[in-house]
Amino acid sequence: MSEGQGARAAQMQITQVRPHEILREHLQARSASLTLHDHASMEAVVRAVFSTLHGDLTGNETSLLAEVEELGRTIAAAKAEIAALRVDDITDSHIPSATDELDAIVAHTATATNCILEVCETLDAISAKMDGPDAVLMIDATSRIYEACSFQDITGQRINKVVMTLKTIDDKIAHILNTFSVVPPEPFSEAASDSDTGGLLNGPQLPMVAMGQSEIDKLLASFE
Amino acid sequence: MTIDKSMNILIVDDYKTMLRIIRNLLKQIEFNNVEEASDGTEALMKLRGGQFGLVISDWNMQPMTGLELLQEVRADTRLKHTPFIMITAESKAENVIAAKQAGVSNYIVKPFNAETLKEKIEKVLAHV
Description:
The structure holds two protein chains of two kinds. Chain A has helices at 3-30, 39-51, 59-84, 88-127, 132-149, 151-179, 213-221. By secondary structure, chain A is mainly alpha-helical. In chain A, helix 1 packs antiparallel against helix 2, helix 4 runs antiparallel to helix 5 and helix 4 packs antiparallel against helix 6 (151-179). By secondary structure, chain B is of the alpha/beta class. Chain B is built from five helices and five strands, in the order E-H-E-H-E-H-E-H-E-H. In chain B, strands 2-1-3-4-5 form a five-stranded parallel sheet, with helices on both faces. In chain B, helix 1 (16-28) links the parallel strand 1 and strand 2 (34-37). The termini of chain B are close together.
């Protein structure tokens, strides 16, 4: 190898190695704060690498550079689209409004149920002063109303499950917005996790999958 | 079988409406001495300070759940033999098994009817 060829080979090696070294140094310097979700950090790293790319690029390097540029454009476009959708409205307005509406449903049904119960209690008091089959009929009727009124408890629990789901969606959206650095909103509340509820608080099951009283009786009997 | 209908019954639920419903249903089957608690902690305090022949409790309550209340009752030397019926919307097999393992006397799934409540109370008290 001539002196000129040796110098050119050495220069090519430096050109090929230097970006990796600089990238490594940059990553080491920022290792404490860098995360995969940190878009700004990734962008800074890519820019640092680009700033070191001098001289002729090989075919592979050109292709890689084009892909990285395309990736950068895709991320920027995604950020712009998310911002344009005003996704933060979901966490700031839509979900709080939906949960307030659901809370209002629970409150209104509770008021109505208590009103029905009050009337039933009056009827019970009247039936206590009655004799014969009419009294039995009256007690049977109020008994059925009491049973039906337990819908309020079940409905309340079902609505609470929906509220929890909405809060989970709210947290996920806030996380996505944060990841893409799109106006990072604060989640308005913490969603309850399974560990908060002891792992066994499943709430009411949908009728098609719920165990009925007779199935529960059989299960209990299997222990005896 | 004779059931002492003058016994004190403690009903535990965080839904005031549910307490009212159970109290009225109990009254219709002539159990008139009924006390209420809105969660496991309050129930445990009442149980330790009084004399109750039966506990009817919901599961899903805070800060102490019905299951935790049951475990506390069964671990308490004075209270451990108190009949305990769970009335809950938790109808998964894992819930029923957990309650049984904790020593529940019987288990009623919501929504329930007056006949089921009466039948379970009679069954539980027959074993006392």
